[in-house]
Amino acid sequence: MIAKPSGFAMFFIEIGGFMATFLGDLTNFESIRSALIVVLVIAAFALVFAFVLSSLVSKEDEGTDRMKEISFNIREGAKAFLFAEYRILAIVIVVLFIAIALFTGKEGASGVQSALCFLLGAIFSILAGYFGMNIATKANVRTANGAMTGGMNKALLVAFRGGSVMGMSVVGFGLFGCALIYFLTGNFEILTGYSLGASTIALFARVGGGIYTKAADVGADIAGKTIEDLPEDDPRNPAVIADNVGDNVGDVAGMGADLFESYVGAIISAITLSMATPALSQKGVLFTFVLAASGIVASIIGAQFVRGNGNPQKALNTGTYIASAIVVVAAIVFSNMILGNIYYGIAIIAGLLVGVIIGKITEVYTSSDYKFVKHIAEQSNKGGAATTIISGIAVGMKSTWITIVLICVATIVAYKFGSLVDGSTGGLYGIALAAVGMLSTTGITVAVDAYGPIADNAGGIAEMSELPESVREITDTLDSVGNTTAAMGKGFAIGSAALTALALFVSYANAVGLFEEGIDILEPSTVVGLLIGAMLPFLFSAFTMESVSKAAGDMVTEVVRQMENIPGLKEGKAKADYKRCVEISTGASLREMVLPGLLAVLVPLAVGCTPFLGVKALGGVLAGSLASGVCMAIFMSNAGGAWDNAKKYIEQGAFGGKGSETHKAAVVGDTVGDPFKDTSGPSINILIKLMTIVSLVFAPLFLKLAGM
User: Fold this and answer.
1) What's the DSSP call for residue 106?
2) Average predicted confidence (pLDDT) for the chain
């Protein structure tokens, strides 16, 4: 039974109704500038809502002095990493700003304008990630204290509010930037610069944060559980603070930057394709902005229904489903109101429903409630570490088929209904709208995802602070749900990345004239491009996996050194040097993130500028990377999630429980799966989108070099 909305929720419902009526009146205006004012207000309101939630979380009690000390160390470690990362990113931003300003200008859009939009996209992505991460490092200790003083319901409320700050920051900054640029200039072409800024930050945030978190996590697990036989989050383990810091810089800031990029990319690709569709033009732009704004209102309303009822998973699902239902209604109403038909509303719904289903399918393959994870646990019992690895890889590979089929269904449905309005160009706009639909509820989707790392940190703080066992039971329950929501969030991110990259690829094809000439798949340059593109996700994953391995090795060495050289540490009578482990993870991640990041930028530029390759070969690169990258991302994310939950399933008592030989085998699987699901897999999403947006932004340069 769904809980009745609070007075706070009713307030937002009334605002949503007012906005719908107001926008309906504005469709009679020749210009959409008046409507964009409303869109800007809603985007700004999301940021205000994030600030209110941040204040509510900050007012909660932090608990004991020991809890405050641990939380402070986590927060300072996370800030130190982000500021160090931003210093490196500043160099990348300056170089790309100059390149965009000099080489991307064309009639109607100067390179300087695009460069300024690029800078704004980068700044807004950084701000969204920083604000979300900052409050997450405050919410963790308050969630632990909430579990101690108010039980499950209080802890859920604090953790979800902390995650909601990230969600509202992503959609608030994302939509505000897009709407502001279009409001001031009316030039849709320079919006691609904004998307490139978001994509650039996203890749480095995902790769850098992913390497950090998994270097700490893998190092802590190998040294703590395998070598020293310490329990999870034991304060004697020097790597535990670095591990908890990693949850914030990777799973909060990195994940937020990932979906910020997808959200912005989907909106911009829809706007670009709308302007290429004669029957739509400005009306399609208005519809895209209105749907994105409706999604923000829906997410805020849905968040009011996430209340503690003893079942955190049900509460989180309720909020998501209510937000999705509101967007379904808005899609039909505004499609008919603005575009004069419901066909594009159906395209929106197709993307939204497929996104929800992909999340559920991901849960089926990665949750211990279902047979796939139980099968991995059983194989751990029968054959040890080897069969754990084999069965986990098989589950990950198997999980690709249904997600790919669902993405194909959304693509075909959106194209077919869109083409009923204006042929193939209308159909392509429909595909872009499917991506917008899937990402329309990003506000609450990111909130549910970011809740997970906060709950995980809360459990670590409870363990290190030696809080009562009842507190750890609550945080473990929240963390278990968080593992499922994180896996669902990764599935959602992969699905949205596929549709967004496809829509951006279509925009690229339109920009370089491939619609008229077409691409001959048998042409040697195209075949070369396809092969290069298909190879890139593998090479990229190899770089990131190897980076985690090297950094984790350094971490293990440091943990063992401290255990042997600090008198009384093993007995719990001395304090570990947590700061040194934080420094190791920070240094390794910043050093290792550069090569994978440059790969995504330099390869499209190299192919597009090479005389015997050019725009058609680059089209092959984008198609090849999209096809192999989506499958690789699904496989790696789901295999890692399944290994993780197989270990947790055994820790709950199955096949001998903690300390058994089965458990040791499962720990190996979980350790292998860590960089799969939290470094390489999620980063591939951004790889395929960043390469596409780089190609789109620098298309004028490629055409000029080719004499076109």
Assistant:
1) B
2) 86
